[in-house]
Amino acid sequence: MAKVLAALRNHWKKSTFGACLLGWGGHWLYGKHCDNLLRRAACQEAQAFGNQLIPATMPLKKATVFLNPAACKGKAGNLFEKNAAPILHLSGLDVTVVKTDYEGQAKKLLELMENTDLIIIAGGDGTVQEVLQEPGLLRIAAFSKIPIGFIPLGKTCTLSHTLYPESTNQVQHITNATLAILKGETVPLDVLQIKGEKEQPVFAVSGLRWGSYRDAGVKVNKYWYFGPLKTKAAHFFSTFKEWPQKHQAALMYLGPTERPPEEPDEKPSRPPLYVRLYRRLRSYWSSPKKLPQEVTPEDWEELKLSTIELSIATRNRQLDLTRTEDFMDICIEADSVSKGQFVHRGSQKMRDPHTCPEGSQCIQASRCILQLPEGTEGSFGIDNEEYEAMPVEVKLLPRKLRFFCDPRMREQMLHAAVQ
User: Under CATH, domain 23-50+58-184 is a member of which superfamily?
Assistant: First the structure.
């Protein structure tokens, strides 16, 4: 023992390095062990769903998974196979996996929509948008009725903040999201239809951003050598451009619309033919023909704006299941901010892109038209994807899609609405 202590004392640098390496290795192994325990517990819970008896005449539920293997720097495929796929298979679902990285995908998606009970999107914000952008997909009535599950595997997963509890453990976050799909609780989410003058419409579940904070945010990774200060560095160096950075535009918008009552999931059976004929004839002969009513012109509001950033966002982040009006939030931020405020707010917007700081003009609208001056350069950020800035019309499609969510999150939404 004395010789060992003497050797450790004489080679203290190597001893210190070895102790640090041993401590790190033990911590890494313990983390792997905890992840395996989480996977095992989730699989056991999924097995309970798979053991449920169903009638012999009832077919298995079919789930179509749209997986983006390139998400999370190419790690999404491995994350899905290790954490989500075993849960889905043990639950008794008939799972079909479609990778979103090949040509002819749109035709394949339209074919699968006719033969699936639920859709699962495995990836990040880009994967969600990629599925929604397929030509004609959102125009299919059946697609709007199919419940959608979201497994967060990408770098940015905005929807996960609404659908699932926060978790710093990636394995737990993925398994919780997959189990939420099996539990069957859903919430309706709004969609924005964003259409240029000539382009096909783009659909978004989060919103649109245009301005200096977004432009600085996309350059954060270029300043990786600043480490934890790279976000502040990106916004600080962007202030070296022309200051203040103003974005000029004209905005026309319509106010909120009244939310219609939800339709029942099960429609009543169709009456016999003779009953339908009788009702039609009675309606035709009993009621006098009415002259077509004049269409009331829409009450558009117009606004000239100068802003450092404009955002148009759905209410999906602050979901209220009991509200009586449908609208999107338009935030017009003041252009009179100091460089220090710009750097500070820029860091906040990296965590919550659609936050509306104090002093901004907030508008609730169901539809809007954004007119940009000729020669306007720059880009829009639509659900964290980049698009060329151009005049656009943004239309709210209220409660267009139903997403699976964790029952605890749904309960929190209803409890917050009652308070």
Answer: Probable inorganic polyphosphate/atp-NAD kinase; domain 1 (3.40.50.10330)
